[in-house]
Amino acid sequence: MINWKIEETGFNADKIASNGNKYLVGNGYMGIRGTLEEYEKEHLVAVNLAGIYDKVGDGWRESLNAPNGLYTVIRVDEEEYRLPNSDPLEHLVSLDYRRALFSRKTTWKTPRGKVTVESERFASLSEPHLLTMKYTIKADFHADIELRTGIDGDVWDINGPHYDNLSLIEDDGLIKVIGTTHEKGDKVCVTEGCNYNFTCEKNLTVDGKRILRHFSFITKPGISYEITKFISVYTSVDTPDFEKEAKQLVKECIEKGYAFLKDQHVKKWEEKWSVSEVVIDGDDDAMEALNYSLYHLHSIAPRHSESLSIPARGLSGQTYKGAVFWDTEMFMLDFFLYTEPRVAKTLLKYRIDTLNGAKEKARSYGYDGAFYAWESQEGGFDACSDYNVVDVFTGRPMRTYFKDKQIHISSAIVHGIMRYFELTQDKSILEEGGAETIIECAKFYYSLLLKKVNGQFYELHDVVGPDEYHERVNNNGYTNRMAKYTFDMAVKIIDSLDGFNPEAAKHIRDMYPVDDLKKKFSDASSHIYIPQPDKEGVIEQFDGYKKLEDVSVETLKSRLLHEKEYWGGAYGVAAHTKVIKQADVVTWLTLFPEDFPEDILLKNWNYYEPRTEHGSSLSACMYALLACRCGMPEKAYPYFMKSATADLTGTGKQWAGLIYIGGTHPAAAGGAYMTAINGFGGVSFENGELKAKPQLPPSWNKLSFKIIHLGKLYQVEATKEGAVIKECK
Amino acid sequence: MINWKIEETGFNADKIASNGNKYLVGNGYMGIRGTLEEYEKEHLVAVNLAGIYDKVGDGWRESLNAPNGLYTVIRVDEEEYRLPNSDPLEHLVSLDYRRALFSRKTTWKTPRGKVTVESERFASLSEPHLLTMKYTIKADFHADIELRTGIDGDVWDINGPHYDNLSLIEDDGLIKVIGTTHEKGDKVCVTEGCNYNFTCEKNLTVDGKRILRHFSFITKPGISYEITKFISVYTSVDTPDFEKEAKQLVKECIEKGYAFLKDQHVKKWEEKWSVSEVVIDGDDDAMEALNYSLYHLHSIAPRHSESLSIPARGLSGQTYKGAVFWDTEMFMLDFFLYTEPRVAKTLLKYRIDTLNGAKEKARSYGYDGAFYAWESQEGGFDACSDYNVVDVFTGRPMRTYFKDKQIHISSAIVHGIMRYFELTQDKSILEEGGAETIIECAKFYYSLLLKKVNGQFYELHDVVGPDEYHERVNNNGYTNRMAKYTFDMAVKIIDSLDGFNPEAAKHIRDMYPVDDLKKKFSDASSHIYIPQPDKEGVIEQFDGYKKLEDVSVETLKSRLLHEKEYWGGAYGVAAHTKVIKQADVVTWLTLFPEDFPEDILLKNWNYYEPRTEHGSSLSACMYALLACRCGMPEKAYPYFMKSATADLTGTGKQWAGLIYIGGTHPAAAGGAYMTAINGFGGVSFENGELKAKPQLPPSWNKLSFKIIHLGKLYQVEATKEGAVIKECK
Questions:
Q1: CB distance from A540 to chain B under 8 Å?
Q2: Which domains does chain A have, with CATH numbers?
Q3: What is the pLDDT of residues A234-245, one digit of tens each?
Q4: A391 touches B: beta carbon within 8 Å
């Protein structure tokens, strides 16, 4: 069995950035990078907030980092000891990902003896606004200690600074920092109170953007001096009374104390694991990697809201602007659908509630219906820039087409809503805007359909498919298939209106000429061009793909002139070759395996697999899932592990051109989960019935997990012989 | 009046390349760059041949340069004197462009005295295979001279060498070099014979790729020693008997002598000028520049053939692969139509005879009909590369879309054929393949038409218009309008079949379902989307143009990071701005001024003029012509002069990315002619009647010229008061 803990001994400054992701704690309201208490902005410290954004000047709009209430540094005998400046004698960081506890322990050798600091922190799963830390200091001599701890308002930003002004305040024994954002004047309020168990001299200073308590004392050898910090984080978007509530929460926590709060937090986590833990008998590495991935998904689930989604890099910082991508619907959703459907609904409600933004985006391009944001922020605002990559050779922004041509995004929303409905039969999601969303997405695709005057099919031209290395292509198979699916789902919705509550049905019927739309969408579905396998069984990814240069990924690497150069775009090394960034046809076949006989699935897997760079963390799991579908769990396994270890190894792509794209990879985590459950576990829902046809990798003896289906919890025990499914009572 | 001569005194090595263009002589069969006799390939010497091409390895297919039969160097007292190595005391080159005679005179100071060489050369207008030179040497002391003259087979190539082997032969007093081309094994045979009027020691050597006669003698002070060379150039494509005919021609010429041949040549040129000279009273600079431009057009007119066209850089070398562009039909054709319609027919017959190549090209892209080559070589082979520009920052070829998306090329062929027919009423051109060509071009555009499933119009997407800086645009106004024109002309042709000779009419009716095509083309013409003026009267160049950054040409220049970087492509400085390379909407309005009221023409001129870089020599004349149409001859004038002096100043663009594009600019020459005659002269043909409504620039008192209309020659005398048109008897 696994010990639910990752740790690292010794200090390596090169890992400051990647450990910030790997040791992250979060509770869906905020994510706290796994950085040390004494770190400042140059070490990528972040208390990254969900769902609140700001834009300054010409910079990209991005999520906010709150002032850091964990900030703590020590002086020993008037000398400052801090990483990475002061080499430690011993150093350990660890993450208990069962209980979501970050801890560190560092010992420095000073001229007079050794000093050790330890800390433990968690973002409370029972109280979304609460961040808590215990910090202890111990010396083996009579050390003269000055401990400074408080709130650091000098936050790390990629496109900041976002706070036009910061108020640094002492109030009733608490300290707080209130920042006012540039664009909308939102307030972010971080309030801190603390307990400590020793006598000392105290002082309070404001030093630039930091407000700090100073504790001066002399240690007795071997005695631990402990301070516990209770930090509340609120914004004016949460409540107009944010300041008052923040203070009240801290006051209450001071009363309750660290142990009690930790206990509450751990219990909440145990509740989560009691449903979501996946047990893999025979492969501890896989079990650890997978559950560690699920830890990350749990840590960023927006349980405090009814309408909020998860950014592509979770809550690990401002990478990708803190924006929501198709990652959520296509890769993360299944985990929540299976283990916590309420969160799945929250994620989808975010899309439903941003329908107006999607309609505005469609209108801005002259299209009808709903064109969802490629990089969605609040209100559905598309944060994606037309110039999303920087040319390493000229330093110029490159015109990219993620925003305006990656039209498959809208179909991902439809897929998410319908998958939620299929697995829960909770039609409230359709009645509460889901039906309208699906119809608007269908209208969007309908307005894009082109027909050659002397042709028969309807086509979609000038798009970017999942494989972003090939821009502006015609008839991307995945996109066309998803558009067809969208038309089909819209027809299905219209056909099922009689089953809606009368008000919801009337709303739709008042709003749309449903008979006319049904006719149009049916016609579109039956005429849209869907590329078919050629005589080798291979489906062409887009018109003309087969004519491109057939070359290996390795050869392309050898053609690079600059390690950070972008492979896509008009002239990238991959652009005019068959090498693709990520699963594209394979994603289609994974979603719709019934479109073709199994030998066609296999032929396409075999064809595209060696031509895929996997430059996206979304890629591996699609190859893994289709491999399972084709009866090749042994070929799926390395792709599964690649997905499951994306954040554990921290070796993912850090750069797209000159843009930093590091952070956590929740879509890979979700993909690993899907591979385990749907792929190896072989879970499916045939005619509303839960089935499992396992395909375990060679080393796995048993795969056990629970899933929720139609509101009931089931235990699935999958072995090489088959699966046993039992309802949990 | 002008003196019909350009000259340059003093020697400037920096001008070797540009003077090669400026002092070019040619006769349509070959062009001889204005280089000196002692120059070798590094000085861009070329005897460039019309209509014969070769490809070696991965290089571009390009026209051939023949071995250089003019090659001559001297030694004086055993010391070599040659430019650019030996600084001259005096130096003069000149071109008598009335008589098409190149001459040079150079004096060197040697330790014992001065030596002067003079030469005169012409490419015979009466005998296309003949190149003739007189070379004299004179010293003011008893100079010990060794003159070496012969044939230099070590030719300049851009993508060569093209001769797999060279035979260097002495035969019956003549010398010859026969090269065998790499791709097809064509033979190029240069034969030389000479006369001389002095006694000397003679010798013959073969030195690498050169075969040279050596003449050694001692000069008497003040006496000229003259050698005349008769060089024939033949290829195996001309005749299987090329070797014999070449020899025979040289033998005959030796008999006839230089003076006689020169007299024949000059008489032919006088014949040309008797029709084509344009007299501008009041502006010698303009008259000189214009007639110098016409000299270039005459020099490259393929009078020796019935089916041959003119490359975009004339016969000035291998730039642009020696290929034929739309330049010929849209910019050069009018000059020949007005002054020598037989040449116009020859140019168009080349396109008609390459219809199969155009059909093959269309088929290769999955289109119907005829898609003419963007860079046409023999048989209609498209020499255009998919990678036609080199990225200056990476040295990598850039994917360009001239070949596959500049679909307006086919309409230029239709326009040329119909213009020939309209001005000559010679329907043989239609009967001899022109009708079929037009129908195939209409079929081509028909197969490209797209209709939005929920739209009404037919659209053309993903094209490149005349403004090549904006790639892959939808509904380029010029392209759509020319497609409509093509549909209209095809319908007109079908309607006029009864007037064809019965055999030609039957051929068309057998070949095509003409009633069905007529219906389709009429429908296409009435539904194709033609952008209309907005409320400011401006026609959007293509969908979305108005949303681009509005910035000045100067600002773009300031953004350049490299002087040779390409402005277009996906990321060029112009690509996402309103700055355009060349007249685009303005070209449309120049061709179809009746599409809109005059104020719309003017508003578009005013809008696009400051946004045009004029990065193409095709641009200025369109602005000049439309300015005349709008009653602004003073605004037309600088654009006219820019066109007319394109080769005189030699300041045109020399580079597109890292690709050399220097050479002569016959399209600019043709554009200058059109501006003079159609613009300032105001010539038009209303209902088949020749009219002239002059709009003279302020400084012009009178503009006089002759033009041929419906087979008759007319004299036009245009003044500010109006025009007098008289038939010449």
A1: no
A2: 5-274 (2.70.98.40), 278-727 (1.50.10.10)
A3: 999 999 999 999
A4: yes
